[in-house]
Structure formats: C-alpha cells, structure tokens
Amino acid sequence: MSAEPVIQIRNLHKSFGELTVLHGIDLSVAKGEVLAIIGPSGSGKSTLLRCINRLEDYQEGTIEFLGQSMGYDISGGRRRPLPEAVIAKRRARLGMVFQNFNLFPHKTVMENLIEGPIIVKREAREQARKRAMTLLSKVGLAEKADIYPNRLSGGQQQRAAIARALAMEPEAMLFDEPTSSLDPELVGEVLEVMKALAREGMTMVVVTHEMGFAREVAHQVVMMDRGVIVESGVPADFFSRPKEQRTRDFLSKVL
Amino acid sequence: MTYSWHLEMIWDYRQVFARGVVVTLQLTIIALACGVVLGLVFGLMRGARNWLLSMPAMIYIETFRSTPTLVQLVWIYYALPMLTGVQLSAFNSVALGLGLHTAAYLAEIFRAGVNSIDRGQMMAAKAIGMTYFQAMRRIILPQATRRMVPPFINEFATLIKLTSLGSVVAVPEILHEANNVISATFRPLEVYTAVAVVFALIACPMIFVARLLERMLTARS
User: Fold this and answer.
1) Nearest C-alpha in A relative to B132
2) d(Cα B177, Cα B171) in Å, to the nearest integer?
3) pLDDT tens across B105-125, in order?
4) Which of A219, A209, A208, A119 is nearest to A164 (CA)?
5) Which parts of chain B sit beneath pLDDT 70?
6) Count of pairs with CB atoms under 8 A, one residue in A, one in B
7) Model-level pTM greater than 0.90?
8) Which of A42, B21, B74, B96 has the fewest CB atoms below 10 angstroms from its CB?
9) Given this model, what pLDDT does residue A213 score?
C-alpha cells in the first residue's frame, strides 16, 4: 500500500435541510484496501458513499479522490461547487454499484457495459465491446450479452452492474449494499465476484450487512451510527473485541 | 321542415378547402415544432431543483394552461404590438401563439415522463461519468419518451383542432376559408359539415399512426 490515500475524507458534514445525517466523518482508504462500512439503517452509510462520488452535495469538509477534490473548490478561501463537467470526469474513474442494480432497462447487457466507455471515454466501439466481453466472462455472464436486463435474475443483474462499473476501468469502487435486495440464494454469487475483485487489488468501499464478507475480505471495518463513526479497526479485532457498547449491541443483533 | 342538401356545391369549392387544409397543416407543424423544443426546455427547467430555473418555467406553464387559447391568440395579435411595436402577421401570430400554448402542455408531459423514470437511473448514469445532459439524452429521455407517447398524441390532436381558432384573426385556414364560402353560397349546413369531416380526415390518420408507433415502442421494451 502506497502512502498517498486513494480516498481521503476530512470532517464531512451533510444535512438534508434541518436533518443532519453526517456529523464530521474522517476516513482514509489506501490503494488496494477494502473498507467495509457497517451500521444500522439510517446511520448515514449510503449517504456517505454517495458523497464520495458527489451524487450528494455536502455542507462542510473535504473529500479527495486521488488527491483531487470531489465536490468543491476551496482554493482562495471560498468554497465553490466544482463545475459539473469536472466532477463527471473525476467520477468516471470511481465505479459505483447500487443496491437496486440500476441497469439501463432499454439497453442490452452489452450496451449497458459499453455505454460509458463510448459516450464518456470516447473509446472505439470494437475496443469497448472486446473489453466488455472479457468482463462479462469474468462475472459469468458471457452468454447473456445480448439480453435485456429484465430477463436476468437479481444476482445476474448485480454482476452485470459490477461489470458495467469495471468497464470504465475505475481506480476504486464503491458498493452500496450490493446484496441487500437479493434473494438469499443469490447473495453468494455476487460476493464471489467482489472477493475476486478484492484479490486483484481493487480499492473498494463496501457498505454492507454481510458480516461474513466484512470479516473475511475487508482490511478495515468502520461502524457508523447516527452520522458518526463509532468505531473502526481491522476485522479480527473489530469483530472479536469490539470496544464500544454501541458496536457490541449492533453486532449482537446481526451476528 | 325538409332541407334540400346540395353537397355537390362542396366539390365546386374543393380548391378553397384544399388551400385551407394546407394552411391548417402549416400551422400545426410550425406550432408543434415550436412546442416540442420549448416544451422540452420548460419541462426540464420546471423539474430543476434551482428555483431560478423552475419558477419562471412554472409561471409560464400555469399562465398558458389557465387562460383560454383564443384569448392568447388575440392578445398576441392585437395587444402585443401595442407593447412592443412589432406587428406580426396573422399567420405568424397564430403559429407563435399555438406554439407557446402547446409548449406549456408538452412541458408538463415531458416533466411527468422524466419524473416517472426511477431516480437510480440518473445516479447510475452519473456514476459512469456522464454529465446531466448526456444522461438525459442517452438514458432518461429514451425511457421517458415511451411513456410520453399517449399524452403526446392527445396534445397533437388538440393542436390540429385548435388551428381553427386562427379564423378569428383571418388566417386562411379551413374554418376561415369555409366562412368565405358560406358568404358566397349561403349554405352553412353543407359547408360546416364538410369542415368537420375534413378535420376528422386529417386528425384520424395521424392519431392512428401515432397509436401504431406507441404499440411498436412498448413492444420493444
């Protein structure tokens, strides 16, 4: 792991009107690191993830991705939102996988994968198709390339969505509860794809309720509750000797 | 009372009717083009989170939806020149008025169509690095269009019929040409019946074609 973190969050505050959902978050993710974020629903985990690639705005603090600000320009003392085109460019290098897959229903699986490379990266169609095919084989969906997403099972849709994110050749990946809307028997196939990614050294931030995955794959586990980080640590310590009462309560409910 | 029909007199004036049909179609096409472009702009503005964008769009849309079309047309033809000093021709006034009118209704159709698409689609498009306009063009609008076709057809049919209001400011569309024929022949029963039939003949095939298109679009998704 290199010294320069891939994602660096400092003192992040976020509110929806009167309701504050993040009260000062500090986090750093090193290259090749897998960070698992756990915690009860409504604790701000997903909001934090969406702040990282600026799908949400935030009121205070900084988020840097590969040393560049994600969201605001604070040079010269004033805090100005970055132009949309600048954010879009930085976002393109940061993949994201959603709880509800969000595949494009009017496009085939192959078209879903090549959309970003062709439209955003201006890549040649043939080259994009070739890499998409390799990725589909990797997630076990090679023979589903020309099918529309609504013909796929939930697990297949989520694997296609992971391949779509990878097609952009991202420097890091964000996973927002990737298995939470899957039938239990389909969770395994998605976790397998994610484990393979982690083994290849992909930098990953995973919001998850899968404690087994966090324990086995993550390098760092963070527990969030009511918009703050309650506790963090390496999985071995975190799960066997949690320091905080709130972590112990939460773990006793989910384990 | 028995009325002796003389429908053959319509045939004698066929060229007058044909001229009216051409003007009606011109008005429809210009107003529709104007309405689609402006409607898309106002529809997207109306849905914006920034009130500097959404507020003007809302005022525009509600103004046009809550005033009679006839009043809008005479206002543009008679009142607007007094404000601006620019007198539009009758044809241009009606084309502009109907275009602005159609834009207000289409804006609501566009907005409803875009709103009906799951928010996750925009997030997913942005997550792969698309800008708002790329996401709209490639991801949101293609999906929304399919849902917008039925209300769009309604609006289109309404627009064809609204062109008859042009007769009030002497635009030579079908109804106005018909009134001229009546002044010459004193046969309102035949002539107005023919007017109704001609409008139906224009609108029906268009509605039919649009239905077909709708069915093709829904079959594909």
Assistant:
1) A84
2) 9
3) 999 999 999 999 999 999 999
4) A119
5) 1, 219-221
6) 68
7) no
8) A42
9) 95
Distance CA A181, CA B131 (A): 28
Model pLDDT, residue A1: 47
Q: What is the model's pLDDT at position A199? A: 96
Residue from the list B123, B128, B221 with its beta carbon closest to the beta carbon of A115: B128
Asked if the Cβ–Cβ distance from B134 to A119 is below 8 Å, we say yes
Q: Is the Cβ of B120 closer than 8 Å to some Cβ of chain A?
A: yes
Q: How far apart are CA A222 and CA A227, in angstroms?
A: 12
The stretches in chain A having pLDDT less than 50 are 1
Contacts of A98 in chain B (CB under 8 A): 120, 123-124, 127
Q: Which residue of A has its CA nearest to B128?
A: A92
Q: Work out the number of other CB atoms within 10 angstroms of the CB of residue B56.
A: 13
User: Which helix or strand (DSSP H or E) is residue A37 part of?
Assistant: strand A34-38
Q: Please provide the DSSP assignment of A182-230 as one string.
A: S-HHHHHHHHHHHHHHHHTT-EEEEE-S-HHHHHHH-SEEEEEETTEEE
Minimum Cα–Cα distance from A174: chain B residue:
B127
What distance in Å separates the CA atoms of residue A91 and residue B42, rounded to the nearest whole number? Answer: 28
B128:A116 CB<8 A: yes
Q: Six-digit token pair at A219? A: 């390098």
ipTM of the complex: 0.93
- Best of B126, B128, B145 to disrupt the A interface by mutation (most A CBs within 10 Å)? B128
Of the candidates A222, A162, A191, which has an alpha carbon nearest to the alpha carbon of residue A152? A162
φ/ψ of residue A36, rounded to 5: -105, 130
